[in-house]
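Each field is set out underneath.
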Amino acid sequence: MGETDKIINWKIRNVSQLIPRESSSPIKIIGDHLWRLTACTGNVEKSDDEKCLATHAHCFSFSKDDAWFCDAEIEYRILFQCLSKRTAVPKSHTFTHRYDAHHSNFGFPNIIRWSELMNPDNGYVLNDSIIIQAKIRYLDDYFVIPMIGTELVEQTIQWRLPNISQLSTTYRELPMQYICNNDNIPWFVKANSECSDRTDHENYLTTFVIVNEDSASDSWSCQVYFEIRLLFQKLISDDDAPIMHSREAKLSASCTHTGIVKFIEMSELLDPKNGYILNDSVILKIHLILLKTNGF
């Protein structure tokens, strides 16, 4: 299997709680592109109340030229986890799509009916988790512009938040960080608790990434991708995985921040049985990727 033919295996935990808002996989770099999968619930038909699982594959280029594109074939499978079915070959769903700067995601609005997915006899669900597999194959002549000299500009840090039980609507800030792509671009993270219309009047941990906030220039812009993971400090089981949210956004002088309003309910975060809290602190792991910059 070469650079143009890769497999992403994504375990989705707490699948019974999956909602219409998308859940996202970690990114994977294949060739000169970044890939991630998303999943959410939907309806089989617009006029139908029966739920289904929807999945999409997202592709981003870290070329500075917006004229990039790639033609790719994506083969999806939901893997069997039941021992009696692991030797069977799961049904596959395949599509081809031209990804570019303006059409960066494509997928299946109805890959499987919810009742079929959640039926224990079908072998997809184990410990309230499923595994989605996507095999990505680039088709011939998939670059318009050669990606010569492009480098991935990224930074990963861990942030321990102490006294988490006392977190309030007042933001706590990670000390300023600098990501380098010939310019040292400042960025940091804010976190607070919020109970408002945006959180359906439930108390949630809210996180935001802020880039170049105090710049005197009003002509800069950048495209960023970030992942924020809530790490376990006590391993509950081998099947557990950190809660992770990700987002891709274009930031500029008029909008310097992007984030996750409903990261996790505070009651779930503070419950010792869930393994996130230790000595009244939690740990966030932030991975920031700078895709494009202008005006720096």
In short: The chain is about 5% helix and 50% strand. The first strand starts at residue 5 and ends at 13. Helices lie at 114-118, 266-270. Confidence is low (pLDDT under 50) at residues 141-150.
